[in-house]
Amino acid sequence: MSKGLRARRASGGDMEKERETLQAWKERVGQELDRVVAFWMEHSHDQEHGGFFTCLDREGRVYDDLKYVWLQGRQVWMYCRLYRTFQRFHHSQLLNAAKAGGEFLLRYARLAPPGKKCAFVLTRDGRPVKVQRTIFSECFYTMAMNELWRATGEVRYQTEAVEMMDQIVHWVREDASGLGRPQLQGAPTAEPMAVPMMLLNLVEQLGEADEELAGKYTELGDWCARRILQHVQRDGQAVLENVSEDGKELSGCLGRQQNPGHALEAGWFLLRHCIRKGDPELRAHVLDKFLLLPFRSGWDPDHGGLFYFQDADDFCPTQLEWAMKLWWPHSEAMIAFLMGYSESGDPVLLRLFYQVAEYTFRQFRDPEYGEWFGYLSREGKVALSIKGGPFKGCFHVPRCLAMCEEMLGAL
Amino acid sequence: MSKGLRARRASGGDMEKERETLQAWKERVGQELDRVVAFWMEHSHDQEHGGFFTCLDREGRVYDDLKYVWLQGRQVWMYCRLYRTFQRFHHSQLLNAAKAGGEFLLRYARLAPPGKKCAFVLTRDGRPVKVQRTIFSECFYTMAMNELWRATGEVRYQTEAVEMMDQIVHWVREDASGLGRPQLQGAPTAEPMAVPMMLLNLVEQLGEADEELAGKYTELGDWCARRILQHVQRDGQAVLENVSEDGKELSGCLGRQQNPGHALEAGWFLLRHCIRKGDPELRAHVLDKFLLLPFRSGWDPDHGGLFYFQDADDFCPTQLEWAMKLWWPHSEAMIAFLMGYSESGDPVLLRLFYQVAEYTFRQFRDPEYGEWFGYLSREGKVALSIKGGPFKGCFHVPRCLAMCEEMLGAL
């Protein structure tokens, strides 16, 4: 943090008061993390087949036993991460559940081994139900395997991770035909921001404390960052979810689509990239375009909270859920603003962290049964009482709480 | 209508008052139909390429120029139907727009002629953007072509319709591989109720005043009716959207999914089947299971209106929009209850028509710019201000109004 900003924070002698507030939030966040992890440990483990139930109602009852590969991989990753990096989570119950989830993925995730394409959702006993023609199941598989290797030291997990990573990079940068998407004459060659975001996240994951892989993926990381930055359009006035591969705005709703929470998530992925690079200029750009801009445009002035989807020309989005308030954009915003503050010391970012965190803890927490609600109406009422489903598992909430606890501790 | 019920309606000498109410609704519905048709005629016609813009905002401005094949076919069908059956719509402007839409479909809808598979969405100039691995684009294509033949007398349209119908029947009853769905080991062989519904609707469409085709499709119509009736599950206490092909309940959310508006639409498809068959026993069953039952379970006791999705075990549905109030379930309910009353004379069904129609006209109409809003919050607030989009075009509202005007006139 620069001396000037340190001074600014200290000025008026409110340093002490601020430290107390940060300390209070650290405790609040840490206690919430314990409750959230307890919810998943109590309700989501499939003792019979391994892996995790994620379709859990408010109280944790399983309302469907399908196993979504994204969420299986994410929960394995989360458990290993907590086991590795938090003393109080360093216990065998968490590691064994992660291993059982990892073995379930190894055995069943791929549709036709040795082929690498993974299913999107499996039956409880591992038979494929649906496939997506995207890279995301494979990305979360890779995250899970890399963390399992770090948590257990078993090399076979890391081999799986690196081989899958090579396949994903091949699909994205050389030949996507393996994903099975039909080539249609009128289909725009759109790049969803999720693709370079996800890859950048994997570069960070695989390169962590691993000089060899960090080196192997340096160029890929720079490429991802460039691609994500191409989504800043309209003279820097909008982050668009989909642009052409050469960085031009696309026509129609697809081209105008905005997702403030996703831009904020990209923001903290890019901030970590800046830290690795030691690039303060890029950092300033990221803070401006991926943190402050999406918050300005995406925060609901009437009811608070971040809109899910917006249209850059202020047409009404066609997504029925566009005005709903979802849990994950708010967890990503908490991470982004706290990381932005930790890196820049700019008190504006700390105030935004407090604003988002207060809204999030007030609206999404369930003091009665634990874990957070995922889906609120525009006005902030619980619209779906489920705690987990096809897209909500043990990931965004504990990742946010764990990262915030660490960052608050460091401040 | 049975003498007994005629007497019941007349009893208490309220026959006259009732006739006045029906007459008032006939005028209200007729005027609304004029306003709705005017909206689409003014805003949706693509004079350059033919076909229709359906992504229209509240005022009718085009916010996207993609052409969704379902909606192209539906609008052609609707225009021809109005042209054929309503004196006041029997004008060349409507017919010419329908023909231009039909020619657009003939030229561009199919992905690889002479192959029959159609795109789901096309660019404004007819290049394919997306394909669905279902029969629905092809079904609406068939409806459009059959009506164009009826409106113009040009045989080439009818040839298109009959050939496409044969292909659809082949996909559904003999070999679905042409649809390109991957066979996955864990995927249940589920039958969505939409498939036999859509086919039954086509049987009605193609067989109308056409003894030869009516004969050709008699067995198919009976098969469709049997298949739809298989969706009545749990000892007749629930209509489930998805069942196994041999009529068993499926596990999980998929098996428990209910869609009250869809059941009501199936109800009036089946009522017309009963009329053709002259089967009063089946009619009584349909009125009970496809009209009264879905209304009892699907009508929101707190805010009025029909829920979009429900879970047969009262778990929270995973669809984010489950509690929203959509325009089409309400237009289908108006048709179903008025048809049920016309056929049975049961005053309970007439009261339900009034209840749904009052809610629908109050909540969905836009007195300012015409056409109806499509998507309301659970509480009945407009959630999306669009008048048309990827799934809402010139179809459910005018079809409902036209059919209700005819039925009210006949009463």
TrEMBL record, chains A, B:
The keyword Cell cycle does not apply. PANTHER family: N-ACYLGLUCOSAMINE-2-EPIMERASE (PTHR15108). Keywords: Isomerase. Pathway: Amino-sugar metabolism; N-acetylneuraminate degradation. One of its GO terms (biological process) is carbohydrate metabolic process. Belongs to the N-acylglucosamine 2-epimerase family. This is N-acylglucosamine 2-epimerase. The keyword Isomerase applies. It comes from Chlorocebus sabaeus (Green monkey). One of its GO terms (molecular function) is identical protein binding.
